[in-house]
Input
Amino acid sequence: MADLKTLIVIPARLHSTRLPRKLLLDETGKTVLEHTYLAAKASTNADEVIVAADDKEIFNAVKAFGGRVEMTDVNHRSGTDRVAEVAGRHPDFDIVVNVQGDEPELPGSAIDLAITMLAKDQGAQVSTLATPIYEAAQLNDAACVKVVFDHDHRAMYFSRSPIPAAKVWDDELLQASPPLFWQHIGLYAYRQEFLAGYSSLTPSPLEQTESLEQLRVLQAGKTISVGQIDHPIAGIDTAEDYRLFVSRRK
Output
């Protein structure tokens, strides 16, 4: 944005458990990582995009398609730590956005919304996104992270369990307007000064119980602003996810 300089960092690991070397899959003529990089470049609010690589092969792949890339410590425990390392080298940026490398269909408009939410809410240290849930199976799926937020669009809690939990269930609750149930979208924008101190926040009991890193932020008393988008963003975790992505590109 005009008055806040914004950097997008894409943490990129070579190895992944469910789909080995997924960021370098290239059946479309471009790697997954290049698609994600180009999607990030479509943001109109961001000033720069940098890939945070953990391996020389990733580094060379980004160089090959003309992207900007920096090597990071291979021993980082999370993508957030990788993002923080790169951000620390560029203290002139006010906002740092963490875009996952396996989300090649992330709209630039979604990134822009996260940046806007953080820029507007001066009391928030972090912003993220959510999209409505309309299916009971999705609501009850522990792999689908849910979020509830207040009237000021500030996160109250994230959970793998259905939240809010209805005392008496009725399928009509899924069609409420405005929606009652929201899926968390794992895109984050951070204030640079908060990100710099993030690693000093120790993992919290809520984070460890739910295995959700964002709960560390809430339990530390920090504020996360939540922007609303209409549709979920399809990341690539499995071979089937990638097959469907390729088919959409034909």
Q: What stands out?
A: The first strand starts at residue 6 and ends at 12. The chain has nine helices and nine strands.
